[in-house]
Amino acid sequence: MSMEKRRWLRLALQVKGSVIPAVLPRSLFCGFFALIVKLLLDAHYPVSLPLLASLIPNIVLGLLLVFRTNTAYDRFWEGRKFWGSIVNTVRNLARQIWLAVEEKEAGDRPEKVKALYLLVAFAIATKLHLRQEPIDPEIKDFLSPGKYKKLQRMNNPPLKVAFWIGDYLQSQYQHNRLNIYQLTEMHKLLDNLVDAIGGCERISKTPMPLAYAIHLKQLLLLYCLSLPFQMVGQLGWGTAPVVVLISFTLFGIEEIGNEIENPFGHNQNDLPLDAICLTMHRNIDDLISLEPTVHSAEPFF
């Protein structure tokens, strides 16, 4: 058996990260209900009703489920694009600050390093803000004690960090370490970061319409509970496992939509925001380890 086939089988049987824990109780409940229907049939109650197959057409339920899942995945993918934009913009802004801001005095280099780490703080603050979590020590290493305390009192911490970055850029321009064109380009990148916050907030604060979610759940429950009446006359004791299998499939598709519609949390199926922030931290560390040629005595070639 090839490595790819073993991995496929391992993923197919994996419980962690799947919707099995959430879906299995509902599916077993439907199977238990099917057993009750079978016992009623054995007691000569007229519970075999194959006409119920036309109660909810399969195509209607299928289209509703597909729409639900596609809508949720669109939100997931849009969130990933916003975070991809944050990563690229942080890299570009950090690179421009590191290369363009002139170092005229001894304290200019440490201040520039602090400004670059503010970009990491921005990413972490955005992650915590989207998760509706308070500012925690994870961000403490990238801020001065005073800024850290101020940030804990903010309603929108990443916006405050963006303000500090903009304030640094404006200060460098006023001290003739940046020209107006460099300042303008850097502010455009900073605007892109703020735009990305707004896009992520739109996803996290715009849930699926409640009426649609309720109606879909009602249809799913009605469909799964009608299955035993459709099948018991033909399948007998096989009705329960078949109902469990079908309901597991349908409830699983719906639960996948629930899992991925808000991709900024801690679940296995959410975006790996911790890893993304760590990547940005490493990128900034790598950048700081490089010496800008324009500030060094090394020949360019």
TrEMBL record:
Keyword terms, alphabetized: Cell membrane, Ion transport, Membrane, Transmembrane, Transmembrane helix, Transport
MF GO annotations: chloride channel activity
Organism: Phormidesmis priestleyi ULC007
InterPro entries (UniProt xref): YneE/VCCN1/2-like (IPR044669)
Main location: membrane
Lineage top rank: taxon: Bacteria
Membrane topology: Multi-pass membrane protein
Protein name (database record): Bestrophin
Pfam families, alphabetized: Bestrophin_2 (PF25539)
Transmembrane segments: 20-41, 47-67
PANTHER family the UniProt entry points to: UPF0187 PROTEIN YNEE, VOLTAGE-DEPENDENT ANION CHANNEL-FORMING PROTEIN YNEE
Keyword Cell membrane: yes
One GO location term (cellular component): plasma membrane
Family, per entry: Belongs to the anion channel-forming bestrophin (TC 1.A.46) family.
Location relative to the cell: Cell membrane
